Amino acid sequence: MHGSEHPLGTDPPGIGLIGPPGMTGFANLWRNAERLAMLWLYAFIVLVIVIEVIRRFVFDFSSIWGEEAARFAFIYLVWIGAAVGVRNRSHIRFTILADILPPRGATLLSMIGSLAIIGFAAFAFYWSLEPIATSLRFGSVSEGLRLPRAWFLVAVPIGFTLVLLRALGVLWADMRAFRANQPPPSGEKLFD
Q1: What does the sequence similarity comment in the record state about its family (predicted)?
Q2: What is the C-alpha separation between 61 and 57, in angstroms, rounded?
């Protein structure tokens, strides 16, 4: 899709948010929070890597915390990006069957896909809590930053919570399309 079709900060047509339509302030925050978090995390990663390259090749000395800080920021970035992919419907999916079905059939197929994402996200969220509990119980810390490892392990349940919420929003949009006998909203294409 072209950048002019979906200005920065708006959802593709038909992709709804969770909550009543009158929540414009909250909806804008909800819509842009992930993008802002991804921007800050990406900028942090680039800054840390540039500093570490300069330190290593100019001063012949590198820190023990730089690589670890960039790695953990990247983990958060990936999980937030997964939620954005679900929201924009730009995640990998097979559409050959949906392309030949009538509108209600294609929408029903999309709803089944959303339910599968919701089920997997709930399952993964549940199983991601045990490592955090273990880390808190034994007081484990990260090697370089010496911060509680639970701060970094919590990225997984946060990410799956965001994926779950975004999948619920997509399912809600699909249900509206199903009632209106329309095909599911197409979302954004990453590649043509």
Answers
A1: Belongs to the TRAP transporter small permease family.
A2: 8
Alpha-carbon distance of 117 to 89, in angstroms, equals: 12
Domain coordinates in residue numbering, the chain? 24-179
Distance CA 187, CA 50 (A): 35
Instruction: For 168, list phi and psi in degrees, rounded to 5.
Output: -65, -40
List the pLDDT tens digit at each of the 192 positions of the chain: 444 443 334 444 444 444 445 556 776 776 788 889 999 999 999 999 999 999 999 988 888 888 889 999 999 999 999 999 998 888 777 778 878 888 888 899 899 999 999 999 999 999 999 999 999 999 888 887 888 889 989 999 999 999 999 999 999 999 998 898 888 887 766 554
Q: Report the run of H or E that residue 37 belongs to, with start and end.
A: helix 24-57
Measure the CA–CA gap between 120 and 128, rounded to whole angstroms.
12
